[in-house]
Design a protein that fits this description.
The protein is built from 3 helices and 4 strands; from the N terminus they run E-H-E-E-H-H-E. The chain is 35% helix and 35% strand. It is globular, with a radius of gyration of 13 Å.
Length: 98
């Protein structure tokens, strides 16, 4: 299993409605792209956030499924919306070590 983590901070002026909408868009990909095991999204409440306000976690079957997720037109559409809101982000991908 592969875990993909994306952590974001949004540009000034990004509304709560926009962040809720993009999280909904990402969550709906679970039933639409083969190989996705689960998707979690949420607002960061950690005091150690370093300005990062939201995180998306996507678990996929394998690296091929991760590529399919990244290249899927629905994900690309969501990524364009995120790009317009993104003031800084971190991406992490790893295979389960157990």
């Amino acid at each position: 299993m592969i875990t993909h983590i994306a952590i974001f901070r949004w540009k000034p002026g990004t509304t709560e409605e926009e962040t809720i909408s993009i999280m909904k868009d990402i969550r709906t990909l679970k039933g639409q792209i083969d190989g996705i095991i689960d998707i979690r999204c949420g607002k960061n409440f950690s005091k150690w956030n370093e300005g990062y306000t939201h995180a998306f976690v996507v678990m996929v079957r394998d690296r091929d499924a991760l590529d399919a997720y990244r290249n899927h037109p629905l994900h690309r559409s969501a990524a364009e919306k995120i790009g317009a809101m993104d003031a800084g982000s971190i991406g992490i991908d790893f295979e389960d070590a157990t």
